[in-house]
Amino acid sequence: MARMLVTGAAGFIGYHLCLHLLRRGDQVLGVDNLNPYYDVRLKSDRLAQLLEQPEFEFRKLELADRAATEELFAEQAFDVVLHLAAQAGVRYSLTHPHAYAASNLTGFLNVLEGCRHQAVRHLVFASSSSVYGANTRLPFSVHHNVDHPISLYAATKKANELMAHTYAHLYGLPTTGLRFFTVYGPWGRPDMAPFLFTRAILEGRPIQVFNQGQMRRDFTYVDDIVEGVVRTADRPAEPNPHWTGDAPDPGSSTAPYRLYNIGNNQPVELLRFIATLENILGVEARMELLPMQPGDVPATCADVDDLVRDVGFQPRTSIEDGLARFVAWYRDYYGV
Which one of the listed residues 38, 100, 153, 260 is annotated catalytic? Predict the structure, then answer.
């Protein structure tokens, strides 16, 4: 039985991750600040289910609060820290930049400090496919340079990777960053396309389709994501003995530090995604075709070969099955 800290435990991925860890017999302490970026009731209902589990403990905590985070690590001992807490959203970062500095930079620094002083066995943290920014070479690879973010959200996630590497190098803290690619599924975030589109279609409102629908996304079902996160957590990062400063590999290091993409490796055209959703709902969507939004990219596709090789990651859920499960949850949760 391992003692796990999961930050962002009331969030979409954090909730599913906690359930998975609890079901396999781990002890989990979840922390979350329950901020109102989206409907707090959804977060509270996720949390209520977790609190029914005997090996789950919750603490409401703002990780940007240095004293409170130091107190957490002083009072508790953790084998593994799974850091998912962050201020999410590309578009929101255009209008609320300071929220990203507090949560994604200061909050992460406080977690790094807690991990290094406690000598945590492994820190796994959430990065994002957004770090690829202006890159257009597909599929995106962790071995590609990612120095051109196009949103502040992406810049903070890139900063997290640099901060984590520094701590791995200076203090020998094993750290692994996971670049998530468009996660969806039951209990999903209300600001993401599956939720936004489902709600609008069922309410008879038009859906906003950016870049005239000419978008591709590497939609990845949440259960597949969680399986990959847990497998990664169980395998602490190790130095790459072949790494050289003459030809530095961005995805590894002479320090115990690794980066992985975690995605489906099967991009879906947005119009196909919408057609699949229409078929499941039995309702035709009204589409409002719009130009590309600032901070967005036209396509994402994850090269997951390293994660497949190292931990046996293998996403199994098709977009048809995944969306059907999401819609079933949505109808049940909202009584539609």
Answer: 153
